[in-house]
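Final report, closing paragraph on structural work. Over the funding period we assembled a curated collection of sequence-structure pairs, and we close with a single example.
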Amino acid sequence: MAAASTSTSASADSAEQDALKALTFQRLHPKTYLERFLSENVRPDGRDLDEWRNVSVNVVVCGVKAEVAEPELDRPEEGFLVPNLDLPAICSPKFKPGPPSDEAQVLSDRLNEVLVASGVVPTTSLCIEPGKAVWVLYVDATCINYDGNAFDATLLAMVAALRNTRLPKATYYEDTKRTICSRKVMEPLQIGRLPTSFSYGIFDGTHLLADPTSFEEPLLDTTISVVIDENGGLTSVMQLGLGLVGGADVLDKCIGAAEECWKTSRKNVYEAL
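Its predicted structure, as stored:
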């Protein structure tokens, strides 16, 4: 029994040393580390190149705040949708305390483009009184554990939160120039479309990686996000990074893979909410 115990202990120590060596190599030579995995058609977290991580949506971590404001002069019947993603230092060592990081600002701008362009909440539905009063919706998401591809996850959370939002019935009174909100009557938002994003990273000009992790992201040549609506239709395609590697063929491959993933695993992602 003693000999068996000693053998088991030695084996555990050896495994721990191997793991430490692998971690050290990963930190010192991240690109080579990733290349060695991809040469075997597998990724460091054990996924296939085109395999996605499991998704679950919790509307609690994304909040919607509403306030009444005047519309823009050239858009008197349109309200405002203002998404914002916070990447605090607590979610990852790569982010520092202080003002929003450049990455958070870029992601917030991309989220705004998708939410407004796809018409998740038609801005005309946020009008209380044309030229006088409209709703402003601040959609705030906070990342609590960053592991890459925050754009896809945040879009899911924001759409889910908007579907869960109820606003008090608001009435504008011309004589007092004031908007009064009901304390009893709450109305759901008018939801137009339900976009879902599928992001892919291109590594070393040859490997297409679905749902890139935080380790993979800094090593990518570029990232392509394909947005699909609730009917499986293509809403938009966005690129972040260098010029498109591989040309139209890579773009077509990303779109095709996104449409297939939507059909097989993400088609009903919003139904449980």
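The first helix runs from residue 2 to 28. The two ends are 55 Å apart (CA to CA). We thank the funder for supporting this effort.
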